[in-house]
């Protein structure tokens, strides 16, 4: 008896869509039901490569291909439209990051999913947060959850290793515009960073953001952001991100009462206190002395499977067998988007915003920016049809 397969359609055949196409082609338990892109030549090319049918409208793909699930890899604003159409038809969804551009759209997606589950209880909604599979981040999560650090007091994450050239921004007419993309680094590169922050530490109670528009590039959206978070447990967080620095930095410091965990340059180190720093501070009679700290290098198995294929495999296994956990459930996309929208709303309003944020205020501001945009894109820079996207993916 031949192995049972899941039928998956792919909509969106740009840079990230090509990555999904390659993965689907390699999976023995997947039948590619169809591929879809507005650019007919592109859809035809990938259909031939994957031995499937080309579609030029996502509704035709949903209605005519006989698919069980769809992977959404289109520009961000179209995520909700296609996801809602799929849920209405009882079709499983795996969506590229971010879940949506603004929270009101994300909540519409989640509500549609929950309503669809009343008729289709086994319906699945997954997000492509592949950085959750990276060995170093998984190890950090296990250490944080184990309680080894004790009460957390501060997290500082400098992640400026997202360098993008002007040629990158010129490569698509939708990139780095309020109307086409809905934002800059927080919407495109850093949904992974924002998801990782909330996955590890939760969503903060308040957000203070400072976003710089087109500081390093000729664009109308943010390419450098500094944010400050306050959590209900007293922990504070700092986030510094940009697409303008080279060489960039990816350094995460997690401070707890029992020591400091530092992740940088492929090395995870625990600077371990002999006793709680809070206890020591309250009980010592010394005014200036510091505790002796043990430096412990944490071993991480970097050969563990990771990346997009792991997320897709988990999704397919869930669909075929009804077992196993998704790497990221669609509902979890609300957390990362809360950070992104909250940072920008704070920056626009020049004040700290409480969480949950005013989603209506952010959407109204976004509509204002779209309506008032007079930005004229330069002619796209010619490039090969199939970009090597591996260079854009995180390595921790």
TrEMBL record:
Q: Which InterPro entries match?
A: Gfo/Idh/MocA-like_OxRdtase_N, Gfo/Idh/MocA_Oxidoreductase, GFO_IDH_MocA-like_dom, NAD(P)-bd_dom_sf
Domain of life, per UniProt, equals Bacteria
* Residue ranges occupied by any Gfo/Idh/MocA-like oxidoreductase N-terminal domain in the UniProt entry: 6-117
Coiled-coil intervals: none
PANTHER family (alphabetical): D-GLUCOSIDE 3-DEHYDROGENASE, UDP-N-ACETYL-2-AMINO-2-DEOXY-D-GLUCURONATE OXIDASE
Q: Where is the GFO/IDH/MocA-like oxidoreductase domain?
A: 137-261
Q: Which organism is it from?
A: Paenibacillus agricola
- Give the protein name, as stated in the record: Gfo/Idh/MocA family oxidoreductase
Any matching Pfam family: GFO_IDH_MocA
